[in-house]
Amino acid sequence: MKIYKLTLVTDVVVEAFANLIPQLAPGCPLPTKEDLEAIVNSKHTLLFMAEEHNEFLGTMTLVLNKIPTGDKVWIEDVVVDKSARGKGVGVKLIQYSIDYAKTKKLMSINLTSSPDRVAANQLYQKLGFIQRETNVYRLTLK
Question: For 49-79, how does the pLDDT look when each residue is reduced to its tens digit (9 = 90+)?
Fold first, then answer.
């Protein structure tokens, strides 16, 4: 299995996201090729892919924000294909992002995870993430 930063969006990549995104967020609009290209071309958002035998097994997004209190890094949209779960794909994706952040001398990485995603929460804790005491708020604009 290889983990890498996505640099080129092909039709196969678009199809992979059409398969993966509904597994993470059913009902969420699928990213278009243009959406994915905008992410790949951004200096602040990185897409990491897990691939084996020319099949995409999962993806995650690393978001870098520069704000007055320092650089903030967020892991977003971690999804492993249902056929590959339990095979260490999530571990490798998260570890790749940790290693990347270390090379950039970043101080911490943040993420959120729904409490009902038991396996994901256990994985994050196993990798050293500590649950913070905070409230997460969302304002829906539709």
Answer: 999 999 999 999 999 999 998 889 999 999 9
